[in-house]
Amino acid sequence: MLAVDQREAMRLMFQAAGAAVPVPDSALTDFKVMAAKILSPYASAVLVDRDFGLAQILKEKAVAPTSSLIVSADEFLPGNGIPVDAVRIDDAVDPAQASKDGAKALKLLVLWRADEDPAQRLAMVDDFVRRCRSAGLLSIIEPVVRPPRRGWAFDHDEAIVAAAKELGRTGADLYKAEMPMAGQGRTDVVLKACQRLNDQIEMPWVILSSGVQADIFGRAVRLAMQAGASGFLAGRAVWASVIGAEDTPTMLRDVSVPRLQRLGDIVDECMAAR
């Protein structure tokens, strides 16, 4: 599955690629629509956001009929100098309307910090799952770990497992996980780390590509699937390198399409081996 729901993070990518500052909202929307049109024929689903993508993607029917629409239902709250310091359910996303628009699922980002109240996270996820079910939509949660606010010692990989232990039994339909060890290291060690993660999740799970180098993301997908994952829901590993390209459509076709096709082939190969 393909993700194009990045918001301020995508704006920062354009800035890093040398785009004129400030980067207009239209640059994000245009890229998202273009990426959905060109890449969705090769993805089983496309994840889009309300802020900069959904309306125009629906208007232009940018998602291929062979692909499914997933809508982000998270509102990102900036703070402490970062674009996403906290998250809450986006009340502007109406699950019933999303279903009418053709969506099959909603996605919720859940920031996990060891020093924040787990009861609040669990309550938010429970509310989100109920909203999805009320509209006949699948629920996808995306726990992403962050260092504690109070400066405690932080082990990213241990936090990924702890987040899965807390949130992997919530009854959501799909768990979107960070890749242990960022996919780097000896094969047996990375596989064992993925197996630890799998042991904590009682629902199907997939990996995201943020934090994983694009050239090793295919290996990461393979190892995660060998440990029990069901695939990937990723964006950066597919299209980040073409952000800011002079001829974006051509680069999406020449660079991103083959990457996405190969990732799909890896998923198929792993499923066939089960």
UniProtKB/TrEMBL annotation:
Q: Which GO terms describe its molecular function?
A: 6-deoxy-6-sulfofructose-1-phosphate aldolase activity
Q: Which Gene3D superfamilies match?
A: Aldolase class I (3.20.20.70)
Q: Which InterPro entries match?
A: Aldolase_TIM, DeoC/FbaB/LacD_aldolase, LacD_aldolase
As given in the record, the signal peptide range reads: none
Q: Which UniProt keywords apply?
A: Lyase
Which BP terms in the Gene Ontology apply to this protein? 6-sulfoquinovose(1-) catabolic process
Domain of life according to the entry = Bacteria
In terms of PANTHER family, this protein maps to: SULFOFRUCTOSEPHOSPHATE ALDOLASE
Q: What protein family does this chain belong to? A: Belongs to the aldolase LacD family.
Name of the protein in its database record: Aldolase
Q: Which organism is it from?
A: Roseospira marina
